[in-house]
Amino acid sequence: MQVLLLPNRMKDTDLTVTRQIVTLLCGMGAGPLLPDEFSADLPGSGARFMPYPEAFRQADQIITVGGDGTLLRASADCLKYGKPVLGVNLGRVGFLATCEVSELPRKLSLLVEGNFAIEPRRLLRAEVTAHGWIQTAMNDIVLFGNSRLHPMDYTIYCDGAFVARYRSDGVIAATPTGSTAYSLSAGGPVLDAKAPVMVLTPVCAHSVRAVPLVFSSDRRLTVVAEKDNRETVYVSADSNARCDLQPGEAVNISTAPDQLGLITFGGTEQFHAIETKLMRR
Prior knowledge:
CATH class of the largest domain: Mainly Beta
Largest sheet: 6 strands, parallel
Number of domains: 2
Order of helices and strands: EHEEHEHEEHEEEEEEHEEEEEEH
Strand content: 35-45%
Radius of gyration: 20 Å
């Protein structure tokens, strides 16, 4: 078994956790891989170093070392190469990175023994036709005004039919996975990660009747930045890639054809994370 490690230097600053994972994997008979950029940091560790694309091709599984953001950034390449991913959490919450440092010996042992499941997670696809912008998101697609000084107007369509109009700071379209992230902070519901749905949540809507809306995953949503808006609106995918919408332009949001495989060690890890990382805070 070949396991590619992707550490976040901002989280694992001295690579202590990465070294621990390499030592554990070697002791269990697995082959840890790392990108070439880490070769000077971990000499004699037992890991193999190679160019990033080749490491992805050779790996059976991917392990990110950081937080949820680290896993999100790696997700595009995990999709590209068809590799499942396990996140080791060094962040503050860690809904996606479900392995804590204290759990490394047990969960790595289960991984090497093959006692794990690969849970497919739905993704969202966002397209702005006017700019040729297409992105995939594991958590959410977010629209916001370039200025927070005043709300903007957004009109929502589902399969071409009018649904709602929000005057709000922004709009979030989230996957079930992303329902526990920004959407939750804006008042959206927590969704079962396996549910074939997506949720649209307004951010600080200027109306007492504005509520989150849950749609079937086979729907196609269109969010229009109204032409009367004073400024441009930006749309981003998982807080990374960004596109500016001029007044009157729209983003189309649908379920992506591909799914990301998350490595899990039980079918209830999402609910365990909700109970331990949300309810007890």
